[in-house]
Amino acid sequence: MRNRRFLALCCAYGAYLLAYNQLYLALPDEVERATGSQAALAWLFALSSLLVVVAQLPVTRWVGERLTLRRSMVAGLLLIAAGFAVVAAARPADWTGTAGLSPAAGFVVLLTLGQMLVAPVARAWVPDLAEEGRLGLYTGALSSVSGLIVLLGSSATGSLLDTGLPAAVPWLVLAVVPVAAVGVLPRR
User: Fold this and answer.
1) Angle, helix 69-90 to helix 97-129, in steps of 10 degrees
2) Alpha-carbon distances of 61 from 14, 51, 98, 117, rounded to whole Å
3) 3-class SS at 103?
4) CATH number, domain at 130?
5) Mean pLDDT of all residues in 162-174
6) Residue ranges of the alpha helices (H) in 22-167?
7) Collapsed DSSP state (helix, strand, coil) of residue 168
8) Which of 79, 130, 143, 160 could form a disulfide with 138 if both were Cys (CB 3.0 to 4.6 A apart)?
9) In whole angstroms, how far apart are CA 135 and each of 30, 104, 152?
10) Per-residue b or e along 63-81, where b marks 16 or more CB atoms closer than 10 Å to that residue's CB
């Protein structure tokens, strides 16, 4: 608890996980709104999986050669925020059908690309921040603190989606989460 840089990483990683969990909370709601059912979720999940299978290793290799750990996390978090912003920007148009799924597909692509940058880098950063001989404790703490953030944040997100606010507002609020996480990332 005294390692402020590590706790900052935990908070940023927790914000990423909260955003990633919107594949299972906010995205189904958006797909249902756009198409009247959640059947298209399977295709969007397949799209995310395909991107990870095809691009994760090349992206990780490319990032490792060009970006610092912090810059990779910043880029990933901003891509995730852009995914939420795509849906927020399209919501006032209230598109349905295939056109209505386009923002959701954009969200999935940007979220997945962001995830490919954030997840491996956050885990690679832990040894740099861990005290000597305590890597296992720090790795477990990353998961525990992040999980707590997701638990609390998902409750708030569910309430936000149910409040009856203008359609773009929940997505804009969700876009702020990864942007705020950029602000708490530790400096190298």
Assistant:
1) 160
2) 24, 15, 34, 10
3) helix
4) 1.20.1250.20
5) 92
6) 26-35, 41-66, 69-90, 97-129, 135-161
7) helix
8) 130
9) 40, 38, 26
10) beeebebbebbbbbbbbbb
Helices 135-161 and 97-129 meet at what angle, rounded to 10? 150
Q: Are 184 and 8 in contact (CB under 8 A)?
A: yes
Q: Which structural domain range is residue 31 located in?
A: 4-184
Token code pair at residue 88: 């927020």
Question: Which stretch of 76-85, 90-99, 111-120 has the lowest confidence by average pLDDT?
Answer: 90-99
- pTM score: 0.94
Q: Which amino acid is at 139?
A: T
Structural domain count, the chain = 1
Tokens 């921040």, residue? 129
Cβ atoms 20, 108 nearer than 8 A? no
d(CA 94, CA 61): 39
Q: Does position 188 have pLDDT exceeding 70, yes or no?
A: no
